[in-house]
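pinned: reference chain
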Amino acid sequence: MPEKTDDESAYLSALRKWMRETIGIEDEGNIFPKNDWLLIIKLHAMIEAALNRSLSIQFGLPELDRVIGKLDTSNGSIGKVAFAKALKILRNQSIAFIQKLSELRNICVHDIRNFKFDLTTHLSKLDNDDRNALLNAIAKEIRPEITLGDERVTAKELADRNPRFGLAIATMNVMAQLHFHQSQCETRNLETKIVQRKAELFDEQNQSTPTEEPNSPQIPDPRKSPQLPGNPQTDRPEPESL
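pinned: its structure tokens
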């Protein structure tokens, strides 16, 4: 396992707390099953639940939650990832990773004979193009180099040597982006409430009796300020990949 700095450990703790409290993912012990079939099903479910949450908080319309939940996850034209891409919630390489993870998930769930699915065996049976496409999708969602014990390896080497671990790290990086997006949305919503409250105070002041002192401080009309964007601002630094 790669060594983590104190800051990385603190952030992972906060991320897992968000996963537990927001989308109901328990984090007692190791959250990643040893069985490859269960691992892939769980990783996909984690991302799907977090995507549902991100789109819901982005739109701020609870009546859309059921509609969002029924959208296909990985359809690049009309699925959840299509919304995530258009709204810049996720990076392009994250979209590509989710689509490859969805392919693995579909292999696992659409044929009961794949209950004993083994990821290493599956990779060995793929042709070079398909194998590289999957490994590259994993590697691009991980930082370029990682320390494994005393050795520095590239993301592609990690994905090739330990694809289970690569899938897990890549999934956590997607979750980190969705966690970051929720924080942005919460900030946007708070800023909107502040503007609304200032507008109320402005209206209350203007409706007061005209006996006030002429030099008393006036509350500026916040509605004349630039409008808050519909999307959370994107100039804040994103969390680094794990």
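why pinned: The beta strands are 145-148, 151-154. The first helix runs from residue 6 to 23.
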